[in-house]
Write a structure and sequence with these properties.
By secondary structure, this protein is α+β, with helices and mostly antiparallel strands. It contains six helices and ten strands; from the N terminus they run H-H-H-E-E-E-H-E-E-E-H-E-H-E-E-E. The protein starts with a helix and ends in an 8-residue tail after the last strand. Pfam families: GntR, UTRA.
Length: 234
C-alpha cells in the first residue's frame, strides 16, 4: 500500500470518526482542502480522494466554492416496504431517538383516515437522527385491533417500531406527496418555512381489518424512496 493510499484512508477515517462521534454535527463545515493538506502534509489529490469517498458514502456534502459540510442523515426505503425508521438510521451508524410530543385517545370521527369506528390512540412525535430532527409523525392506531397499545408509552420505542414487532400486517397502502413545510412543521424539523418536504401516508391492515394510519413528513433532502422492477411477461 502506498503512502498516498495510507494517508487517504487515515484522512477518511479521522473525518468519519468526528462525524460518528457527534463532534461534527450535520451542517458543520469540515476543514477546507488546503487546511487538510497542511494538517496531513500530503498532496491535494489525496485529500480530494478521501472527501470524494466520504461524499459517496453520504457522510458529507461537497459544495462548489463553499467547501464540504457534514451531511444530514439521508436514508433510502423501498416504496413497497414498511420500514422501521429507527433501524434504518441505526444501520447508518447514527444515533436515533423518537420524541413523543402528544398522545391521546378518542373516538372515531367523520373524515378520519381510519374508517373503522371505535376508539383510537392518537400519537404525534419527531424522529431524530444524529441529534437532529429527521422526520415528523402523526399516527392513529385502532384500539379495537391493538388494545395493548394503551399500555405502551412510546417514549422508549417509536410506535412504528413497536407495531412492526407486535402486530404483523398483511396489507399496506402508501400515498406519497411533495408538500411545503408550514410554520409549525418547520419549527419542529429545524428547517425554513416553505422547505420542500416528502410526505408519506401509510395504511396497514391485518387480514382485512385496519391497524394503523400514519403520516410522516421528511425534509426532501433526507429521504429517498426506492423501487426495483422487472419487466412483466407478455
Amino acid at each position: 500500500m502506498s503512502v498516498a493510499q495510507t494517508l487517504d484512508q487515515r484522512i477518511r477515517e479521522d473525518i468519519e470518526r468526528n462525524i460518528r462521534s457527534g463532534a461534527w454535527r450535520p451542517g458543520d463545515r469540515i476543514p477546507f482542502e488546503h487546511e487538510l493538506v497542511a494538517e496531513y502534509g500530503c498532496a491535494r489529490a489525496t485529500v480530494s480522494k478521501a472527501l470524494t469517498a466520504l461524499s459517496r458514502a453520504g457522510l458529507i456534502e461537497r459544495r462548489r466554492k463553499a467547501g464540504s459540510f457534514v451531511a444530514h442523515p439521508h436514508v433510502q426505503s423501498a416504496v413497497l416496504d414498511v420500514p422501521d425508521i429507527g433501524s434504518v438510521i441505526a444501520a447508518r451508524g447514527d444515533a436515533y431517538r423518537f420524541e413523543l410530543l402528544k398522545r391521546g385517545e378518542r373516538k372515531h370521527a367523520a373524515g378520519d383516515p381510519l374508517e373503522a369506528a371505535g376508539a383510537m390512540l392518537t400519537i404525534e412525535g419527531v424522529h431524530h437522527a444524529a441529534g437532529e430532527p429527521f422526520g415528523h409523525e402523526q399516527r392513529l392506531i385502532s384500539l379495537a385491533m391493538v388494545p395493548q397499545a394503551r399500555d405502551v408509552d412510546f417514549t422508549a420505542e417509536a410506535p412504528g417500531s413497536w407495531l412492526l414487532g407486535h402486530v404483523p400486517w398483511s396489507e399496506a397502502r402508501h400515498r406519497i406527496a411533495a408538500v411545503p413545510a408550514d410554520a409549525r412543521l418547520a419549527r419542529l424539523l429545524g428547517i425554513a418555512p416553505g422547505t420542500a418536504c416528502l410526505q408519506l401516508e401509510r395504511w396497514t391492515w391485518q387480514l382485512g381489518k385496519e391497524v394503523t394510519w400514519v403520516r410522516q413528513t421528511f425534509p426532501g433532502d433526507r429521504y429517498d424512496l426506492v423501487a426495483q422492477f422487472t419487466p412483466q411477461s407478455r
